[in-house]
Amino acid sequence: MAGETLTVAVLGAGNIGGTLGKKWSTAGHQVRFGVNDPSGKNAQSIRAELGNRAVIGTTRDALQDNPDVVLVSLPGGAIEQTAQEYAAQLNGRIIIDAANRMGEDSMHNLAHFQQHAPQAQLYRAFNSLGWENYAEPDFDGIRADLFYCGPDGEARTKVEQLISDVGLRPVYLGGNEQMGLLDSIASLWFTLAIGQKKGRHLAFKVLGL
Ligand SMILES: NC(=O)c1ccc[n+]([C@@H]2O[C@H](COP(=O)([O-])OP(=O)(O)OC[C@H]3O[C@@H](n4cnc5c(N)ncnc54)[C@H](OP(=O)(O)O)[C@@H]3O)[C@@H](O)[C@H]2O)c1
Fold first, then answer.
1. pLDDT tens sequence across 117-140
2. Could you tell me the distance, in angstroms and rounded to a whole number, from the CA of residue 75 to the centre of ligand 1?
3. HSE toward the beta carbon, residue 120, CA cutoff 13 A
4. How far is the CA of 23 from the centre of ligand 1 (A)?
5. 117, 83 Cβ separation under 8 angstroms
6. How far apart are CA 192 and CA 209, in angstroms?
7. What's the CA gap between 128 and 45, in Å, rounded?
8. I need a surface site. Which of 39, 96, 113, 139 has the fewest CB within 10 A?
């Protein structure tokens, strides 16, 4: 880990939250996972891997003490209620939204966070590739790129650090007016990986950066 040690609340510890949270914990960050069932199978598998570094509880537990960054890796259908119920804890935080509202007009959750946590600094990242690429971001020595968007302030450094600590190269697309573009990149990934049956270990690289 090149930068500072961050406290990270990871909401949802399945494919996405489990993969990213374990990487961040291994990189030295203080990660607290929040799940539906803290004694369920996702929690057990993280405990088995991280041992006493695993801190796993409810959403409320994970959000206590104002974490530096909150990763939202919950099912798309759980976002609205979570944003409403934990509005006070989420407001003012740096939030990375990785959740996709599959089958809806927009996959991102900007409207819900703007409504319930208007002071949060909201980023969109980790939504556009299958989780296998976060587990294995290296393609024969080439580091996959990860597109992201959000406010161009100091918080960006923390978001970029977390992307880099997973092993990906961050590629900034601009402010939250680019959320639709991040949805389109997720659609491109689905088209190739699933529609064209190219397989889920598939990512993107921008040349010339
Ligand atoms: N899978 C991918 O490759 C991928 C890629 C990009 C983006 N995404 C998006 O990332 C999000 C997570 O996907 P996933 O595949 O990681 O899902 P998943 O494996 O089903 O994990 C979901 C996690 O959320 C927790 N959870 C569900 N409802 C909750 C609630 N109401 N309150 C608190 N915790 C709750 C579950 O808790 P328990 O552990 O107790 O069950 C579990 O830990 C989705 O929005 C998905 O669209 C997924």
1. 999 999 999 999 999 999 999 999
2. 5
3. 33
4. 17
5. yes
6. 23
7. 25
8. 39
Mean pLDDT of 16-45: 98
Rounded-to-integer distance, Cα 196 and Cα 209, Å: 28
- Spatial contact of 140 and 113, defined as CB atoms under 8 Å apart: no
Answering whether pTM is above 0.85, one says yes
Which of 7, 69, 18 lies closest to 40 in space, CA to CA? 18
Estimate to the nearest angstrom the gap between the alpha carbon of 110 and the chain centroid.
Answer: 14
HEC sequence for 144-169:
CEEEEECCCCCHHHHHHHHHHHHCCE
pLDDT (tens digit per residue) in 58-110: 999 999 999 999 999 999 999 999 999 999 999 999 999 999 999 898 999 99
Separation of CA 42 and ligand 1 centre (Å):
10
Q: Distance of alpha carbon 169 from its chain centroid, rounded?
A: 15
Q: What are the residue ranges spanned by the domains of the chain?
A: 7-195
